[in-house]
Amino acid sequence: MTTPAVEIRSVHKLYGALHVLRDVDLVVRPGEVVCLIGPSGSGKSTLLRCINNLEKIQAGSILVDGGLVGYRWSGADLQEATPRQARRARRNIGMVFQQFNLFSHFTVLQNLIEAPVRVLGVPRREALERAEELLAKVGLSDKHASYPAQLSGGQQQRVAIARALCMNPKLMLFDEPTSALDPELVGEVLDVLRDLAEDDMTMVIVTHEMGFARQVADTIVFMDQGRIVERGPADQVLDAPREDRTRRFLERVG
Ligand code: ADP
Ligand code: MG
């Protein structure tokens, strides 16, 4: 059997006394697109941040491409990923947030080559070539010399996606990538995500765009109060939810 892209087992996450992830299990297969839905405060962002090792978990294990990111129970021992293991796992992951987080004093092209050159040690010429390729992919070849402030929100988010792709991630995490955008700019960003899905990129996408989720998701995961309540293909979770909580949520987001 192929190694899962992400393997989350019995994960618990607490902020002080606040128990935000409760016994979460989730396996993401290579090439799978998972859309994570659920009410505000249900733990969606926290789960993504744990996968990316931006947050420590208190129990359970998280493996990315077979490499340990979070803790793992082995017998009675709680084993922590070494910094090297965690770094290696993280290198496989690209993350895109609601806010675009571009370097405002860098041009688009400088934004794209910064991490490959500095972190991965990719030769500058090679990084530039790859960056131009990815800008073309997100439809922004003509903007390589622009500064973020000269771009629309939709364009900035597409640059942020291209920037994450410059690191050649095996897994992309998106946390409400269109929530900060004016409605007329949402489509162009979702189009880029659709293209990535067609290229078989493995993705976990937190989104409130149910129409989009229905189109691209292999699996929809519904979370509430720190638990995965329900998961399955879109036609099952969205059209014939088994759980009351899922049904009520879907009625609300309509
Ligand atoms: P979602 O993304 O589904 O809206 P979050 O993962 O952001 O939910 O938050 C889950 C819960 O954890 C919420 O109750 C939130 O207030 C809490 N929380 C998130 N981040 C922190 C933090 N850094 N410190 C304390 N509590 C947090
Ligand atoms: Mg969130």
Largest sheet, if any? Answer: 6 strands, mixed
What is the number of E strands? 12
Percent of residues in helices comes to 25-40%
Strand order of the largest sheet: 8-9-10-3-11-12
State the separation between the terminal residues, measured CA to CA. 38 Å
Domain ABC transporter: 6-250
Enzyme class: translocase
Pfam family, one: ABC_tran
Protein name: ABC-type polar-amino-acid transporter
Walk me through this protein's architecture.
This protein has helices at 44-51, 83-91, 108-120, 124-137, 153-165, 183-198, 210-216, 234-237, 244-253, and strands at 6-15, 18-28, 33-37, 59-64, 67-68, 72-74, 77-79, 93-96, 171-175, 202-206, 219-224, 227-232. It is an alpha/beta fold and 254 residues long. It has a 6-stranded mixed beta sheet, sandwiched between helices. The chain has a 4-stranded antiparallel beta sheet with strand order 2-1-4-5, covered by helices on one side. Strand 1 and strand 2 form a beta hairpin. Helix 3 crosses helix 4 (124-137). It is globular and about 50 Å long. The model has no long low-confidence stretch (mean pLDDT 93). Bound molecules: adenosine-5'-diphosphate and magnesium ion (MG).
